[in-house]
């Protein structure tokens, strides 16, 4: 088999992308749809779901709050109907969480961040694994982490804590599931251009008492390549990690961040 054949995803691969109607999730779902995969997405935003499906004929969708186990169960009921099984889980859903000093963060904000960023990973993985065991198409799981899962991140402790936990989850599951030929990896994006990152910078600028322009310059100064990444950069890595070219890549936390040096 040639290198080109190894890199090219096989048409018909069955892929679930959580929070797939906008942002990084939409870029990932679009990329898999473009290469011929069968794609199912879930999201909390119904209008975004409807718009995405209208733009991508053949993509199926479920509305769900990923932090609610019963709603995750419904997603898998929908998948059995729409795709009959699963080859790839992209555990993309997450939230920025609060920005502030640890003594100002409310219990509600902490628990919601953990529920969305970490508990949802468990809810989806535990339902996906039985289906992945039945897959003969290079079954794998990709969990969306963050550069904040390898670096400390002051004033963003709930977010960073969950992203560090995802790396531990991935490395443990790679050991657990490897004998069954199920690969598990994490992608750690750096600052991603878009509305969400703009909101994060605004909140951090406010918390630290600097201007938004100064905060943006500070973020770029921490990146060796002096630029933010795009959602498409993360999507490209996702497609690669599900290809045969990555058949021996498992248990890895792969940064797509332009080399963020510190946070």
What would you say this structure looks like, in words?
The structure is a single chain. About 45% of the residues lie in helices and about 15% in strands. With about 260 residues, it is of the alpha/beta class. It has one domain: Rossmann fold, CATH 3.40.50.720. Helix 2 (about 25-35) packs across helix 9. It has helices spanning about 5, 25-35, 45-55, 70-80, 105-135, 155-175, 195-210, 210-220, 230-240; strands spanning about 15-20, 40-45, 60-65, 90, 140-145, 185-190, 255. Strand 5 (about 140-145), helix 6 (about 155-175) and strand 6 (about 185-190) form a beta-alpha-beta unit. The model has no long low-confidence stretch (mean pLDDT about 95). The protein has nine helices and seven strands; from the N terminus they run αβαβαβαβαβαβαααβ.
Helix content: 40-55%
**Helices and strands: which structural class?**
alpha/beta
pLDDT averaged over residues: 95
Please describe the biggest sheet, giving its number of strands, its sense, and whether it closes into a barrel.
Answer: 7 strands, parallel
Uncertain spans? none
Order of helices and strands: HEHEHEHEHEHEHHHE
* Bulk shape: globular
CATH homologous superfamily grouping:
NAD(P)-binding Rossmann-like Domain
């Amino acid at each position: 088999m040639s290198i080109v054949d190894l890199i090219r995803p096989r048409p018909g691969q069955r892929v679930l992308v959580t929070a797939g109607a906008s942002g990084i999730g939409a870029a990932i779902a679009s990329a898999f749809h473009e290469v011929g995969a069968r794609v199912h997405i879930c999201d909390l935003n119904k209008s975004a779901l409807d718009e995405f499906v209208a733009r991508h004929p053949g993509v199926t969708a479920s509305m769900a709050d990923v932090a609610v186990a019963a709603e995750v169960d419904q997603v898998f009921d929908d998948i059995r109907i729409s795709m009959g099984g699963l080859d790839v889980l992209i555990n993309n859903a997450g939230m920025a969480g609060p920005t502030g000093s640890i003594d100002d963060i409310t219990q509600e904000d902490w628990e919601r961040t953990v529920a969305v960023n970490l508990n949802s990973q468990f809810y989806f993985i535990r339902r996906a694994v039985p289906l992945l065991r039945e897959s003969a198409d290079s079954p794998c799981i990709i969990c969306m982490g963050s550069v904040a899962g390898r670096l400390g991140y002051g004033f963003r402790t709930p977010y960073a804590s969950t992203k560090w936990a995802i790396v531990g989850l991935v490395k443990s599951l790679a050991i657990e599931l490897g004998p069954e030929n199920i690969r598990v990896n994490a992608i750690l994006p750096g600052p991603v251009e878009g509305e969400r990152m703009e909101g994060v910078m605004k909140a951090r600028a406010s918390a630290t008492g600097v201007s938004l322009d100064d905060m943006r310059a500070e973020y770029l100064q921490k990146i060796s390549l002096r630029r933010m990444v795009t959602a498409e950069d993360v999507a490209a890595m996702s497609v690669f990690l599900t290809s045969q070219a990555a058949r021996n890549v498992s248990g890895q936390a792969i940064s797509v961040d332009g080399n963020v040096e510190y946070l």
